Amino acid sequence: MSQREWIEKDFYKELGVSSTASQDEIKKAYRKLARDLHPDANPGDTKAEERFKTVSEAHAVLSDPAKRKEYDETRKLFAGGGYPRGGGFTPGAGGGFSQDFNIGDIFGGANAGDGGLGDLLGGLFNRGGTRTTSRPRRGADVETETTLGFREAAQGVTVPLRMTSPSPCTTCHGSGAKPGTSPRVCPHCNGTGIVSRNQGAFGFSEPCDDCRGTGSIIDDPCVDCHGSGIQNRTRTITVRIPPGVSDGQRIRLAGQGEAGLRGAPSGDLFVSVHVSQDKVFGRNGDDLTLVLPVSYSELVLGTTVSVPTLEGRVGVKVPPGTADGRILRVRGRGVPKRGGGAGDLLVTVKVAVPQKLDDNAAEALRRYAEAEKASGFDPRAGWAGA
Ligand SMILES: [Zn+2]
Ligand SMILES: [Zn+2]
């Protein structure tokens, strides 16, 4: 059995088991099917006979762990785009191909006499990544960026984004043909966009020259887009930025990228978000941070300070004897989280030292310093011997 058949046949489906089925499950499923479909039990029933053959074939591969592994890997390789049939295959669309993948590694026996597969793959790999054709394909992803204010980013915001990018031509609606006419199927490649050429033992496929790989020929090109079906247009889209985005984050907006050529799906839009600094707040994940300037006496005696939050203000209690630099946590007043709720507000207290005191305050402070010494307070008590 060739690998081509492996790609086309779903043995798991034939046996009615999942692709993660155990060897035991496969054996059981096969036994039951073999019993039901056995030619002795279905004399003259050619359909049952066909099924019996298929099921036996499936069992022969899946019951052998080494063969099963090989089968799984071969199929996985072609999973994303499926087995390529005619046009419409998009390189790199999650098909698991790598550019420098060596076709000879698995399809060692592929030769010109083998028909389709070698040809198709030859063509696919020849073209991989460096396509110059304009056959229908998904539009490119578009990257753009936007700068948000700190609070906008934290709370979520709707912003307009102005972008110049190719869009379907409004005159021909993306067909590339003059209104009233339509493209015709390329007779040279029968609309596939690919022509085959044999060279030695291998069959190669290359984009059709007549239609430049598009599969269709436009006799009367649209005057506005010169037959490409696309126009550069500046558009403004409104983008909802969810709350809680952070600086440098990239947001994906599906289907908002470049238009696909000739009716193919659009690409995605990726918005890189820059968040400007705030004078008051900082961020640590979902937590909002804030430095609260306090006086020495407020730390010693304790106080309640009104501090700003993203929404309104909150009273933060500074307990008596709070050390400079201590972080006070206000639960739930931070940055909104995706799934609901919010982080915390982390308030760091920081002593503000007056640069100048009036005579009255200076005199009071001198008296305080003496009283402090007399009370036995020594700020460097822990330094004994240093
Ligand atoms: Zn046009
Ligand atoms: Zn052609």
UniProtKB/TrEMBL annotation:
This is Chaperone protein DnaJ. Zn(2+) 2 binds at residues 186, 189, 208, 211. HAMAP family: DnaJ (MF_01152). The keyword Cytoplasm applies. Residues 156-234 form the CR-type domain. It comes from the Bacteria. It comes from Nocardia ninae NBRC 108245. Keywords: Chaperone, Cytoplasm, DNA replication, Metal-binding, Repeat, Stress response, Zinc, Zinc-finger. Zn(2+) 1 binds at residues 169, 172, 222, 225.
